[in-house]
Design brief:
The structure is a homodimer.
Chain A lengths: L3 E5 H14 L4 H16 L9 H10 L10 E6 L2 E5 L5 H19 L1 E10 L5 H9 L3 E5 L6 E2 L13 E5 L7 E5 L6 H10 L8 E2 L5 E2 L2 H6 L1 E3 L3 H14 L9 H8 L7 E9 L1 H4 L4 H17 L7 H13 L1 E5 H10 L3
Parallel strand pairs in A: 3-4, 6-11
Antiparallel strand pairs in A: 1-13, 2-3, 4-12, 5-7, 5-12, 7-8, 9-10, 9-11
Helix pairs in contact in A: 1-2
């Protein structure tokens, strides 16, 4: 028996929507959450694919997430949209606010979307990719929980604070990246701990603030940012822009709010969308070629563009109309179906 | 005899303006360039202080910079200002466009300034600090010359591409950082070369794309970005946003344009200004306190905020109304005075 189960793309969608709705999310939430898991699974991003259904169900069972919350969208200034998720998952609020963000960016040149009061579990790249499909450059940032120490610090204050960016390419998948500003993702440290493997140097400190390669000690201490003091500065910027700037929680406040409950972090998110046409004085087409020469020069020397592997996986999975997930995950998911 | 010369703050300004005007910059350019050098020198940022007068003079002597260029400011969309430096130094264009950028950010919530066709030598932190003095959060980015290889690459394609960010703090100096996305600054590698010192691992590759700690080989090869593939992705983002997005040159195009001449790089710059008041739905004061708790938590564990040293230097230098520069630099500067 294979260790993997193969699902057709439509089956994957159906499975995800059913599990979510069986556990208290309404159809709108189930769809918007499924859309993003579908995108991740299609690109073989297993960490943010169907696996996250477990967290979604656990989150709603903890009793604080509103699975039927209707987001409130506010026009908060000529170039600002605010989306109050009203204690629901972030994705429905994003979906509801996206058309207005796109419209404002195209009309004004640059616009920002603040999503507030949301539970958040998803990868950011599908969100910025969507903005690039509309012809825009886009940046997205979220805090998380205070597991990461600032450079020179001794304890967790910052989140894993991912930064995602996307650039539209004519007739091609966008140039997109999405990385945690911590050296490792929290889940990676956990995998090292379970495997009893030593962490590389420079990834974590213990509870006394001393460097450690012991994953158990790291889980009780703090992770470090990537790139030393520069990554730390970037992470603080993300705390500020996706937190106090938009009237929402820092990673530390979000962790306090969670009270150790096994639910998705509760905080805000910021997206910035920029129109290449207005920014270039109407010369976006000519400048696209300039960007393409940059990409070509990177590829020509054997380097990879950030999302290349994902796009290859997407094409393969779409062609064969199927994805694979571990049998253990599949069986666990089936126990969450009630209908 | 001391190795340093002490200048009063007013003397420093006068020396800088005189040298610039004696060498072909008009009064407006001389003032805007001096303002930024003054700010750097006042904060003991020697690398971007009076030392840069040598580069400014060399640049104008190369015959391509227009020392009398009048920048053209265009309202390019409700949230976009474009400033054409018309082949002058960037700083006068910045100064001329800043009021409009601030006005648009405060009215619309977020706004962008594209500076085009400028020669650029200056640190970015004084620019974003200025926006924070006006109560705004700000980001600035520029390309440079293609001295930096992308992650997994073998040759220079990216610039040292600095990223600067600033966050306004009530009654305090702003939270500000400004770092190169290359592991080292170009000038640092040059210092290692002159001193015959080995570079640390992971800073550079030689002309065949192989890792090297030999500074001479690094100068003929390429530098690496900070933080591996994440820093590389960030650097590519800066190429795109401060280049093709705003109809201006990439680092590679800028290097080709220079034809090896000893002048400041010629390219564009992007600044993004964000209004905490509109983004927070009018709750900027309450959220300031949230940001202050974040800073306090960082300081409390013995970590430093990015610009702390600069602010201490500034206070000291302002109090004693003096700065110090190396005697050798001072003597070299005197030879540039013609009046």
């Amino acid at each position: 028996m294979s260790d993997n189960v193969t699902l057709r793309l439509a089956e994957m969608r159906e499975l995800s929507e059913t599990i979510l709705m069986d556990n208290g999310f309404n159809k709108d939430h189930a769809r918007s959450i499924t859309d993003i898991m579908y995108a991740c699974q299609q690109d073989d991003c297993h960490s943010h694919g169907l696996h996250r259904l477990l967290m979604c169900v656990e989150s709603i069972q903890s009793g604080r997430i509103d699975g039927t919350a209707v987001p409130t969208i506010t026009d908060a200034g000529p170039s600002v949209v605010r989306a109050n998720a009203n204690k629901g998952m972030s994705l429905l609020a994003l979906q509801a606010a996206l058309p207005q963000l796109i419209e404002k960016a195209k009309k004004n040149g640059i616009a920002a979307l603040a999503i507030n009061n949301c539970y958040h579990f998803s990868a950011l790249w599908p969100e910025v990719e969507k903005l690039s499909e509309a012809g825009l450059a886009a940046i997205a940032m979220v805090p998380s929980h205070a597991w990461v120490a600032p450079a020179g610090g001794t304890r967790g204050t910052l989140g894993t604070n991912p930064l995602a960016f996307s650039w539209p390419r004519r007739g091609k998948h966008p140039f997109t990246f999405d990385f945690a500003t911590s050296q490792f993702a929290r889940g990676e440290v956990e995998l090292y701990r379970r495997a009893g493997k030593a962490l590389p140097e420079g990834v974590a400190i213990d509870k006394d603030g001393k460097p450690t390669t012991d994953a158990e000690a790291a889980m009780n201490g703090a992770m470090l940012t990537f790139g030393g003091y520069k990554g730390s500065a970037l992470s603080i910027m993300i705390e500020l822009l996706a937190g106090p700037l938009i009237d929402d929680l820092t990673s530390k406040e979000s962790m306090e709010f969670a009270e150790g409950k096994p639910e998705a972090p509760y905080h805000g998110e910021i997206l910035i969308a920029i129109d290449p046409n207005l920014l270039s004085g109407g010369k976006a087409v000519a400048n696209d070629e300039r960007a393409e020469r940059l990409f070509a020069d990177i590829l020509d020397q054997g380097a990879r563009l950030p999302s290349q592997r994902r796009y290859v996986a997407r094409e393969n999975n779409m062609k064969r109309d199927a994805i694979e997930i571990p049998r253990t995950l599949y069986e666990e998911l089936l126990t969450l179906r009630k209908s």
